[in-house]
Design brief:
2 domains, Rossmann fold, DNA-binding, 7 strands
C-alpha cells in the first residue's frame, strides 16, 4: 500500500521571527521506521530520500545507493517493504505526498496570516496555561452567536484528552463546585453580562481565565488572566446582521494554538 498522507509527519505552521506564520518542514522518520520495522540502514536511506525528495526524482537507484554506501538491491528491498512496487514508484509517490503537504501548509499560512497581529506573548501565555491545566477541569462558556464556538472548543479539547465542560450555570462558577482550574470564554463585545458575571466568579475563586474577545478595550478582556484579542470587522453590529469574520477567526486562532500545544505535549511524552 505504501505511505498514506498521514504517515509523513511534516510539522505544522508556527510564528517565527518577524511575527510571520510560516511552514516548518520536519520529517519524523523514526515513526516510519517503527511502523515498517526498518533497519538502521533502511531508515538512513528513507531519511535521505525524504530530505532530498526533489533531487532523487532525477537520480537512478544506483546513484542513491552510492550516496548511502549500500547496494541498489537494498533500496529496492526497502521500497517493497514499505508497500511500493519498486524504487521509481516509491520516490514519485513520496514526492507527491510531500509536495501536497507543502502546498497545504502554504494555503494554511495564507489563512492564518492575521494571527501575526496578535502579540506573541499572549499566544505563548495561552499555550502555557493550557499545558499547565492539562489534567485539570476546564470550563468553557459563551452565549448567543459565540455559543457554537464554545461547543466546538469543548469537543476539540475533549477529543484531545482534556477534561472540559461547557456550561453557563452560575451555580457551577459561584463556589467553583467542580473544582475547575481554568475557564475559557468567548465574547465578541467583551461586555456580555452573563459571561462577565462568570468571569467575576472565576476571579473570586482564583481560577485562571482565558478569553477571546474583540480587539477593543473591554471588561472581560481586562478581567482575564490571558485575553486573546480578535479582529472584529463590525464592532457596532450587535445582532450580527452583516458579514463578520470574528467568529471564524476565533476558531482559526484556537486551532492554531491547539496545534502548537499538542505538538509540544507530544514532544514531552
Amino acid at each position: 500500500m505504501g505511505l498514506g498522507m498521514n504517515d509523513i509527519d511534516i510539522r505544522g505552521y508556527h510564528k517565527t521571527e518577524g511575527s510571520k506564520v510560516s511552514g516548518l518542514m520536519k520529517f519524523d522518520v523514526y515513526k516510519l521506521a517503527d511502523k515498517y520495522k526498518l533497519t538502521e540502514t533502511e531508515t538512513q536511506i528513507l531519511n535521505y530520500i525524504l530530505e532530498n525528495n526533489q533531487q532523487v526524482l532525477h537520480m537512478a537507484v544506483r546513484e542513491v545507493a552510492n550516496q548511502n554506501f549500500v547496494s541498489a538491491a537494498t533500496i529496492i528491498k526497502l521500497s517493497k517493504k514499505m508497500g511500493y512496487t519498486g524504487y521509481t514508484d516509491m520516490i514519485y509517490r513520496l514526492n507527491f505526498m510531500i509536495t501536497s503537504h507543502r502546498k497545504n501548509k502554504e494555503r494554511l499560512s495564507d489563512i492564518t496570516s492575521f494571527i501575526s497581529d496578535i502579540p506573541d506573548e499572549l499566544l505563548n501565555d495561552f499555550m502555557s496555561r493550557l499545558k499547565k491545566h492539562r489534567n485539570d477541569i476546564i470550563l468553557v462558556s459563551a452565549t448567543g452567536f459565540s455559543s457554537p464556538l464554545a461547543e466546538y472548543m469543548e469537543r476539540k479539547l475533549l477529543v484531545t484528552g482534556f477534561r472540559v465542560i461547557k456550561t453557563n450555570a452560575y451555580a457551577v462558577y459561584d463556589k467553583n463546585r467542580l473544582g475547575a482550574s481554568l475557564v475559557i470564554v468567548v465574547s465578541k463585545s467583551g461586555e456580555t453580562d452573563t459571561i462577565a458575571k462568570l468571569v467575576d466568579y472565576a476571579n473570586e475563586n482564583q481560577v485562571d481565565i482565558i478569553s477571546f474577545t474583540g480587539e477593543q478595550s473591554n471588561y472581560i478582556g481586562r478581567s482575564s488572566t490571558v485575553n486573546i484579542p480578535i479582529l472584529d470587522d463590525k464592532t457596532l453590529d450587535d445582532r450580527n446582521l452583516q458579514s463578520n469574520y470574528f467568529y471564524a477567526r476565533v476558531i482559526v486562532v484556537f486551532e492554531y494554538l491547539m496545534s502548537q500545544v499538542l505538538e509540544e505535549l507530544n514532544e514531552c511524552q
